[in-house]
Amino acid sequence: MEALEVMNPISGDTIGFVNTTPLHTTTLMYDQARKAFNIWQNKSIKERLHYISKLKHTIVEQLEEGIDIIHQDAGKPKVEAITADLFTVLDTIAYLEKHAEKTLKIQKAKTPIALIGKKSYTSYHPRGVVLVISPWNYPFQLAMNPVINALLAGNCVILKPSEVTPLVGQWMESLFEQAGFPEHVIQVAHGGKELGAKLVSEKPDYIFFTGSDRTGKMIQQEAAKHLIPTSLELGGKDPMIVFQDAHFDRAVRGALWGSLTNYGQVCMSVERIYVEKKIYESFILELKNELQKLKTEPSDDADLGSMTFENQLQVVQNHVTSAVSKGAKIFSGNRSTLHEQKGMRIEPVILTNVNHEMEAIQEETFGPVINVIPFENEAEVIQLANDTRYGLSASVWSKDLNKAKRVAGRLAAGSVVVNDVIITIANPYLPFGGIKDSGIGRYHAQVGLQIFCHQKSIMVDRGIKKSEVNWFPYEGKLPHFKNFITSWYGKRKNVIKFLSSYFQLLRKSK
After folding, report:
1. Cα 106 from Cα 231, distance rounded (Å)
2. CA distance linking residue 292 with residue 489, whole number of Å
3. I need a surface site. Which of 165, 267, 332, 493 has the fewest CB within 10 A?
C-alpha cells in the first residue's frame, strides 16, 4: 500500500505518512455505501442529528489536537486553525441542530384556482451516495461542512480530502468513527488526483467539489456524461473597493487581513484592491506600515503561517515576475525572497502600478501578493471590479451605506460584504457560492441541506369526483374555458361569470 508523505510546510520537515486508498477498492466502497444508504435514509432527522451532535462534542473534546493537526498539516497560524476551520464547522452544526428538521420537513404549497379541491406539497428525499472532494487550503471546514449537510439530508458520503493535507483527512476519519456513525455511512478515501478521477467515474448520485476551476470543469464534463448533478465551489479574484470616505484605518487593516489570512490561500482572498485616487498614496503607505508590524516567526501568536502546497509557490512567483516585467512595482517585499524561503514561508509582496493586462490581476494567485490600483469614480471601479472571469465575492468600503449598497448590487459576485471582507462564508444562515468561473450552485443555509435532496412535488385529490373538467370528452367545453379565462385573468375580474363557467364545465364532466 502506498503512503502520502506529510510535510510540515513551515519547517519543510517530514512529520509522518498516511496510507492511500487502493484504486481497485473504490467499487467496493460504493457498493458498501449503497447498502448502508438503505438503512441510513430511513432514519429520522432527529436520529441523524444525534450522530451529528456527538460529532460536535467529539471535535470540542479534541480541540487542542485539532488545532495542532491543522497547524502542522496546512501551515496556518493556530488562531486561524481554530477560527476559520474549527469554529465555522461547530457553528454550522449548531445551525443545523436548530433548523434541519424545519428545512427538510414537508412544505405545503398553494394550489391554483383551476385545480380547486386538490392539495399540494413538496417533500425532500436523499439522493443516495454523495462524493465530496475537498481542498487543502481549509482542509477541515471545506470538507466537513458539505459532508455534514449531506449526511443529515440522509445520504451516505464518500469523502476524498486533499492529499496535500492528509493528516487532517486522517483525523476527520477518526472523528466520524469516534462519533459512532454506522458502518459505511461515511467513508474517507485518501489519495491524489488519480483516486479522485476514479471516484468520479464510479457514478455517484451527487458530486460536491471545492477546488480549482480547471479541475472543476473536468469534473463537470465527466458528470455531464451521466447527468450527475454537481455543486462546484471554485476560484476567485475578489475585488475590494475603497472609497475616500471609508474608515481609513479599518479599510487598511481589512485589506491586509483579507489579502493575507491563510497566507492569501483563500478562494475569497482580497486579490485586487481598488482605492479612490485621493487617498491612494496614503493608503499604500499605511498598508506597508501595517504589514511590517505582523508577527511572522512561528509561535502561538504568529500572524502569518506559510504556503501549504509547494506547486502554488511557482504560481505566486510567476505572477509577480510577469507583473514586474510588464511595469509593476514591488512597493513592499522582495522578489528574491520567493527563492529563499525556509519551508514554504515567503515574504508577502505589495504590487503597485499593476493593470488588467497582467496575470496578477486576471488569474487567481492564491498567495501573499497584494495588488493595489487607483480609481477615479464609481462607474470606473465597477467596470474594473467586474473585469474578470471570476465572480465569487467582493467588498465595498464606504461610510455612505446607500452608495455602498448601490455598488454592491452592481458587482458580478455571489456575495458582497460592506466594510468587511470574506465573512459571508462564516454565516451559516446565508447561501454561499459564485458565478461565472467561480462555480455552480450554492450551499450553507437552507439550500445547503436541500441540494443534497431530490425535491418531490406531490398533489393529492380525494378521488371523489367521477371526472375532471379538463378530461375527455371535450364537446361543448371550449366556450366555457374561454369565459373561464377572460373572466378570471382579464383586465376586469368577473367572479360571477367565472363561477358560472366553472359550474358549466363541471356539469359537462359528469
Report:
1. 24
2. 68
3. 493
d(CA 430, CA 414): 11
Q: Is the dihedral of CA 276, 281, 283, 284 positive or negative?
A: positive
What residues act catalytically? 233, 267
Q: How far apart are CA 340 and CA 407, in angstroms?
A: 42
Grid cell listed for 464: 371523489
- Cis check: omega of the bond before 431, within 30 degrees of 0: no
Confidence of residue 78 (pLDDT cuts 50, 70, 90): very high
- Read off the C-alpha cell for 420: 468587511
- The amino acid that residue 285 corresponds to is L
What contacts 445, CB < 8 A, 6 or more positions away? 428, 429, 430, 431, 432
Q: How far from the centroid of its chain's Cα atoms is residue 11's Cα?
A: 30
Q: Are 137 and 266 in contact (CB under 8 A)?
A: yes
CA distances from 215 to 68, 234, 439 (A): 29, 9, 11
pTM as predicted: 0.95
At 338, the pLDDT band (50, 70, 90 cuts) reads: low
**Cell 480547471 belongs to which residue?**
214
What pLDDT, in 10s, does the model give residues 243-280? 999 999 999 999 999 999 999 999 999 999 999 999 99
Give the chain's domains with CATH numbers: 45-234+445-456 (3.40.605.10), 238-426 (3.40.309.10), 467-508 (no CATH)
d(CA 107, CA 121): 5
Cα(302)–Cα(280) distance, rounded to whole angstroms?
Answer: 29
Scanning the structure block, which residue is given the C-alpha cell 485621493?
A: 278
Residues 6+ apart with CB under 8 A from 136: 74, 162, 164, 165, 308, 309
User: What are the angstrom distances between the C-alpha of 157 and each of 143, 147, 295?
Assistant: 11, 7, 40
Give the Cα separation of 256 and 290 in Å (integer).
8
pLDDT, tens digit, 9 for 90 and up, residues 159-170:
999 999 999 999
**Percentages of the chain per state (helix, strand, coil), in multiples of 5:** 45, 20, 35
Strand 118-126 with 453-461, pairing: antiparallel
The residue type at 444: H
> Under a CB-based contact definition with an 8 Å cutoff, are residues 346 and 330 in contact?
no
